[in-house]
Design a protein that fits this description.
The strands form four sheets. Strands 10-9-8-11-12 form a five-stranded mixed β-sheet, with helices on both faces. A four-stranded antiparallel β-sheet has the order 1-7-6-2. By secondary structure, it is α+β, with helices and mostly antiparallel strands. It contains 14 helices and 16 strands. It is globular and about 80 Å long. The longest helix has 32 residues, at 80-111.
Length: 482
């Protein structure tokens, strides 16, 4: 049985187990361990944040560079297992940083007008870390792969030999971790009975609490029921998570949640800036007690961090629930590629602030992870002008929030439904690829508009459900004045 499963990769997901209140003495010792690990993280990034780690395994770096005669390990006053786990963790972060830069370069190559054979050759060079001889790849990697740095001083990484889980008679679960004193361990009470195993990460939160981050098999932690049987496209939105090609909306509470939190934070940060200015004035005039009192009682972040954590959890629940609802009917999920930032599209100040909280990264994460777990495939298509064109009209419409207006026939359409239909059609579009520049996309669409016959431009040819109605010229002018 072991031979049959040999080499099979088991996918895992991260989980968080919060602690109960820790004794003050134990928490101070954990904080001391985290503080001693901080310069190790900085040193690893300084030494291996660039090309020095290419072609070398973590074991070679640790044994040859750190445990040699002149290695950095001789000056570390920590248990060996603790600092070794930290070195491996940071080297993993460096590799992830490099792979993300390589993926960004690959996307850049697909946006360029290169021969297919030349592009494949360059991609192969990137995959094998041999891009230094190619001028274009070397220049792109120099731009995309920036040397990282860290200021983390509250993380402790522990392997499975550095801790034990104990279930005591009082019903509580205790985590016993390595301490600075040999053959002694620090006891940490946990909430509930989490199935902790493998390498874990302790993140100190302050106020004598911490979070235990651990991994568990994806098949045990997540929904794995089968997907649907159809090809469904969806438009990602702000007011709702998705509007699919059937006209159904999913996750309609998202916009209200994001807007409420953004407006609340705006009022809060205005007040904090005022208090900060008052505190600085007291500091400049020598009223040190008043300054310290304002900083201690009014400018803390514990409550703010706690509320952000709750808000993010609610948003993730809404997004993942909506994604599951779409996958219930889709075996092929077609979505727009919004990985690149949207530039040159400025709005008024209040709307810009609200859109800054848009969680399109979480939406994309949900699309990828949920579709993989449930056996669906994902097709990403070019998003350029998907919400500005209805196929029955040979021109671009004018978008007004959730409506799309056409001046020739005075028809008004639902923007999200139009975008979902265009995304579905673009999946089979051979001229517009995923990385086609938006200027070229516009030129292709304008050329298609010129070849459409006048008989095909009536509003009645649109799909039912897209059209909201007609708007008279006078009504449109009154709305524009408002």
């Amino acid at each position: 049985m072991a031979r049959k499963n040999k080499g099979k990769r088991v996918r895992t997901v991260g989980r968080i187990a919060p602690s109960l209140i820790i004794r003050n003495r134990s928490y101070k010792e954990l904080a001391e361990i985290a503080a001693r690990l901080a310069p190790i993280r900085t040193e690893v990034w300084r030494r291996y944040g660039s090309r020095a780690a290419l072609g070398r395994s973590h074991e070679d770096i640790r044994d040859q560079d750190w445990m040699g005669e002149d290695g950095f390990a001789s000056s570390i006053d920590l248990p060996a297992r603790v600092w070794k786990a930290t070195v491996d963790d940071v080297l993993g972060d460096i590799k992830a940083n490099r792979e993300a830069a390589k993926q960004s370069v690959i996307e850049n190559l697909y946006r360029r007008d290169l021969e297919e054979s030349d592009r494949d050759e360059k991609v192969a060079l990137l995959r094998h870390n041999e891009w230094f001889g190619d001028n274009l790849l070397r220049r792109l990697m120099r731009i995309k792969w920036r040397r990282g740095k860290t200021s983390v001083d509250n993380h402790i990484v522990l392997d499975c030999q550095s801790y034990t889980i104990e279930k005591r008679p009082d019903g509580k679960t205790w985590l016993e971790v390595t301490s600075l004193t040999p053959r002694e361990r620090i006891s940490i009470p946990l909430k509930g009975n989490p199935p902790i195993s493998g390498t874990i990460r302790l993140i100190l939160r302050g106020d004598n609490h911490l979070d235990v981050h651990y991994a568990m098999p994806e098949i045990e932690a997540c929904v794995t029921r089968p997907c649907g049987l159809r090809v469904v496209a969806a438009d990602k939105g702000y007011t709702e998570v998705f509007t699919d090609s059937d006209g159904d909306r999913h996750g309609e509470k998202l916009g209200k949640m994001l807007t409420t939190m953004t407006d609340k934070n705006n009022i809060r940060y205005i007040g904090r800036q005022t208090l900060s200015a008052i505190a600085d004035k007291h500091l400049a005039t020598g009223h040190y007690r008043k300054y310290e009192r304002i900083v201690a009682n009014n400018l803390g972040k514990q409550k703010l961090v706690r509320q952000k954590k709750v808000h993010r959890a609610k948003v993730r629940t809404e997004v993942f629930t909506a994604t599951h609802a779409v996958i219930d009917k889709a075996s092929v999920f077609v979505v727009e590629d919004l990985s690149k930032p949207i530039n040159r599209y400025d709005r008024y100040k209040k709307k810009n602030r609200r859109l800054s909280g848009w969680v399109k990264g979480i939406i994309q994460e949900a699309v990828v992870s949920v579709s993989r777990r449930r056996g669906a495939s994902v097709d990403c298509v070019n998003a350029a002008y998907t919400s500005q064109v209805v196929r029955c009209h040979p021109s671009f419409g004018t978008r007004d929030n959730g409506k799309l207006h056409y001046t020739k026939c005075r028809a008004v359409y639902d923007v999200d439904a139009v975008a979902a239909e265009n995304i579905l059609e673009r999946r089979s579009d051979t001229e517009i690829g995923r990385y086609t520049n938006y200027k070229k996309v516009r030129a292709i669409l304008e050329e298609r508009f010129r070849t459409v016959s006048p008989s095909d431009t009536t509003a009645e040819t649109a799909r039912p459900g897209l059209q909201l109605g007609f708007e008279t010229t006078r009504r449109r002018q009154r709305r524009a004045k408002k």
